[in-house]
Amino acid sequence: MEPNKIYSDLIINLSNALKNDDLKQNSFKDPELKKQYTLFVDNLLALEINHSCLYKDKKWSSNFGKTLVNLYKEKIKFIKPDNKKIEDILSDLIFFQTFCFNNYKIEREKLNDNHDIDEEIIKSYSILPEGFIKTSNNEENVYVEPEVVDKDVEQPNYDSNNNSSNAFNASKVLLHPLQDQRFYPYNSKPKNTKLYKMILMGLFSAFVILYFIITGILNFSKYNIESADTFKEWGFNNEFIEKFSNFEGLNWPLSYSFSIPLISSVMGVLSILIIFLFSAYVAYLLIQPPRNYKDKYLVPWFIPIAIIFIVGMITYNFIGLFQFYFGKSNVTSTSIANILGQSVMGFKTTEEIANWLKDASVSDAINNMTNSLNSSLAYGALKVMFWIFFTIEVLCGGMAIFVIVINPRLDKNKLIKANNEYNNYINAAMQGKSYDIDKSLYESDEEISEFMNTIKNHKNKKNKNEDKDSE
């Protein structure tokens, strides 16, 4: 279950419990019920600190903590559980729901009832029911801050009225360094990252364009076999001629000579569609300006991996071409034999086709057909485009690998230090103390400001262009 979902469920359940007058009054007499309320806040703290959970874009543990303190008019120590798993927090929630049903007949649906929640509503839960207030109207209505500490630091804040010193306030808590624009979590800053992205973009675009050009040549360069007489001229036997007479001519595309599916076939359409969508998405990611400072030096891992995947996929589709131009000259004759053997002769297995080819007259006829097609179809243009395509493919794949190699890696030591510093800050804030996170973790303000100004100028320029287009 997602931490944010559990966080919202905790808030809704605790809010419903506190607004229930029966449960509220019984919590003064039932230590276990009161303990459950405290545990709710502990778990909220754990989710906020360990998983950066929010509900309605806010943290709520402090609000509920203050409400409980003001409700019971006593000092309460809220403790962030160490290394508590999500599953354990969920178990606590289920136990609370079961406890309320078994002891107070409060159904789970009532506790899970979604309702409006804001700071004022939570604050109002500290007001006792009218009948209960009459027995407690001699008590001073003092609002005190909850004491919230980590288990490892047992130094309570005894000055409960010193609101100004209490740094544990959702509106004042600093962002975790990982959420801060100034924090750069990687171990290097490769120079010319933007240039590398543009080179990769150019090579990849050229590669995809050449793929579509070659696909066009393979599919639209055709040899029209009008009748069986053509096959007779190539030397095919009477059995073949007789079976071909059932066909009304044949347009032989160049792709047949390399066992490459036509773009009009299901496999051809599917391959084209996948490659086009993947390529368009990768190109979109490459041209996007960085949104965060860390993106200035980072190429998302998905991009080079996706490019390598697309290069591999296209290479697989063109495997017949690669075999032919790298010395396996019988690729075309084998492909022709397979197509004619299946479509005309009606063979179902490769073994049947192999036995058919053992006939010397059949083998000679296919070689004659191959030579005739070689001189009639656009083999010359295909050869030129293939070698350009292959060169771009090598450069594109090599550039993708180069980007993977130079891409910065997460600096584990820096991340550990950032977590430790933030935990120290939170622990101090929970005790009403102050703690300054080590400034060496952050990039200089000048560099961040320069980057943010660049982003701002880019957005302004984009907005101006959109305004001009709308006029």
The major sheet is characterized as:
2 strands, parallel
> What percent of the residues sit in helical stretches (DSSP H or I)?
55-70%
Alpha carbon gyration radius = 36 Å
- Strand percentage: under 5%
Instruction: Write the H/E string, N to C.
Output: HHHHEHHHHEHEHHEHHHHHHHHH
How many DSSP E strands? Answer: 4
Structural class: mainly alpha
User: Quick one: overall form?
Assistant: elongated
Q: Report how far the terminal alpha carbons are from each other.
A: 49 Å
Query: What is the mean pLDDT?
Result: 83
Number of helices: 20
Number of domains: 2
Question: In what order do the strands lie side by side in the largest sheet?
Answer: 1-2
What ranges have pLDDT less than 50 throughout 5 or more consecutive residues? Answer: 133-172
Q: What would you note in describing this structure?
A:
By secondary structure, this protein is mainly alpha-helical. Helices cover 61% and strands 3% of the residues. The protein has 20 helices and four strands. It has helices at residues 3-18, 21-29, 31-51, 61-72, 86-104, 108-111, 119-124, 130-133, 193-220, 228-234, 238-244, 266-287, 302-317, 319-325, 331-343, 350-357, 360-376, 379-406, 412-430, 445-470; strands at 77-80, 147-150, 222-225, 250-253. Keywords: Membrane, Transmembrane, Transmembrane helix. The chain crosses the membrane at residues 198-218, 262-286, 298-319, 384-406. This is Transmembrane protein.
